[in-house]
Amino acid sequence: xxxxxGALALALTGTLALAACGGKAPExxxxxxxxxxxxxxxxxDGLAAVAKDFEQTHPGIKVDVQAVxxxxxxxxxxxxxxxxxxxxxxxxHIGIDYLPGxxxxxPGGLADxxxxxxxxxxxxxxxxxxxxxxxxxxGVYAMPWEVNPVGFFYRADLFKxxxxxxxxxxxxxxxxxxxxxxxxxxxxxxIGLNKPAAGGVDMDFYQSLLQQQGAFYFNQQGEVTLASxxxxxxxxxxxKMNDAGIVADTSGENTAKQLISGGKLAxxxxxxxxxxxxxxxxxxxxxxxxxxxxxxxxxxxxxAAIVNSTHLSVSGxxxxxxxxxxxxxxxxxxxxVINKVFKEGGVFPALTAAYSDPAFTAPxxxxxxxxxxxxxxxxxxxxxxxxxxxxxxxxxxxxxxxxQTKVLLKGADPAAALTEAATLLxxxxxxxxxx
Amino acid sequence: MTLTxxxxxxxxxxxxxxVTKRNxxxxxxxxxxxxxxxxxxxxxxxxxxISLTTGAGAARxxxxxxxxxxxxxxxxxxxxxxxxGLILVVQxxxxxxxxxxxxxxLNSSLVRLRGLWRLGVFMPSLTxxxxxxxxxxxxxxxxxxxxxxxxxxxxxxxxxWLGSPFxxxxxxxxxxxxxxxxxxxxxxxxxxxxxPKDLYEAAMVDGAGSARRFWSITVPQLRPILLLTVVLSxxxxxxxxxxxxxxxxxxxxxxxxxxxLYLYQNGFRYxxxxxxxxIAYALTLIVAGFGIAQMRMQKR
Lengths: 435, 300
Description:
The complex is a heterodimer of chains A (435) and B (300).
Chain A: H1 4-21, E1 33-39, H2 43-57, E2 61-67, H3 72-82, E3 91-95, H4 99-105, H5 130-133, E4 143-149, E5 152-155, H6 156-161, H7 172-186, E6 191-193, H8 204-212, H9 229-243, E7 247-249, H10 255-261, E8 267-268, H11 274-281, E9 289-292, E10 306-314, H12 321-333, H13 335-345, H14 372-382, H15 393-410, H16 414-429
Parallel strand pairs in A: 1-2, 1-3, 6-7
Antiparallel strand pairs in A: 3-10, 4-10, 5-8, 5-9
Helix pairs in contact in A: 2-13, 8-9, 12-13, 15-16
Chain B: H1 8-14, H2 24-50, E1 53-54, E2 61-62, H3 66-72, H4 75-107, H5 114-122, H6 129-139, H7 146-153, H8 165-193, H9 197-205, H10 210-238, H11 242-247, H12 259-269, H13 273-299
Antiparallel strand pairs in B: 1-2
Helix pairs in contact in B: 3-13, 4-8, 4-10, 5-8, 8-10, 10-13, 12-13
């Protein structure tokens, strides 16, 4: 039901919106080329710091780093992609969970950096990352920036009180036994999960168990592997933990933070970013936390897993792709520059040459003078398998989360719940079920 | 603006002004019509086309009724339909009955400060989505939530409002009722005030009691308004999105996944615009069906 006033208002807002969309006209003339970068805080702070240095060595290029915010940036990029690249920044900070979706569903949306020489950096980044930025056509659609190997952050005081030596925990089954003792002696849960997934999915832990086995929701061919043996193995472990009563329900705002304050969570299976996040969140728990590599799923199995990574891409519609790539190259491929980004923005670098910096082996007072970052460098040296997110990751994530909720809330059988989930995922995405 | 659209030759030949008494209403309606075509009709038609395609961005390919076939075979779509229907059947009657009672109270001359009460009843429907969401997640929290605290005074154990599939639906019903009851009450109030006073006076002269007056005058006189609110609430509930989006995200285990929320997830989370458009058309058919059925029932 539209009335005249409504139509006028609509027409007006429409015109304004159109005017706003067309805001980024290509600069003409001989002045410096201006490139814009979309990122989010605190990562954007690190990038902004090196952008100043870059401008000094490259007088013809001006860099404007904008902190768009996360998750707002995904809607902005998606809308820009759907509009054929109109209004996008020249350089985009994109997470691994979104990158394949943009590569698959918006062909041409991201520039092929191979043409600009990105291929020369093929082996410069942590193992497992390069396959994820390479498209099916062999094009390179992003440069790795941040990498997050998984860690096992634990409360040394609680472990000591329960009489457990964390070094002896080799597999997750050992961890479950330790969890039972911890619960009995200290009242603390081993880990926390948002069991009903109310308000958002909580699949990082499940995914890290998959990644430790070199598995995921999809394989390299893009087939659905959600009901594979490693997937069932991982879900069975979670069910075992839950049945043992050592998994706290962290649904609801701030529940996890309250449990951490009260010393009710003994382990945080978080990634590298937590080295700076935990001290910021709980400064009063200084000296209580330690970190080690997580236990393996099977005895003697791999302990390392890259939980996620983020990248810088150049938008396919940018009129200044060469200049944009120059900046990306400058920021991400030089050890001294990327370490400055790390220092300012807390983003663990993917560039392997960066790890020779003494900062990565320095003892950290918060972690009882343990060299906390070294754990993650070790994990990356061991190497992690590439994770194939595919363009249908968002749907797979939701469907897998529903399966986990069924297991945690209704006691569903992991194999049955995952088989059902895999069938649904294959039906919805028209992808084959892996044999 | 409209005059520049006229073809000058024609005006000159016919010597007729484009602005005549007969076509001036059309000229006045033209901006609205253009707006409607540009911002409503075009998207509606474009969505129809998109629902017949798959892919995203420039890579759309025509697939015929594929998306609709997929819809019929999609268990999640049926879950969302079932959830929406369940909320509709439970929530709308409760809300409308409450609204009617509130309207009767607000219309009563026994109530003091009626203006203030009316404002208070209407306020919730003005609350913004974010404030509303934050407020209810505080009220409904399992530990230290306001509602659970109130219940604990009566010895009731803490309820996991947002974490249990059954209670999450109830939580949505509570939030919806809080948000929209006042809105309906104000509509009823307007209806009550338009009933001629002499009808009541005549009935009182004839010796009718207050119950009799309610059933024989108030209800029949309110019939068109009652129908209006039933139709509006039905359509509103079928399009339910805000409450599950902010409170539960459709969980736990998809127990509060509504049709609109599923549409949103497919379009803007999974970039599956073709499928989302097909869901939108299915929803349109359902809403239209309900609207027509309710109008027919009224005529009988």
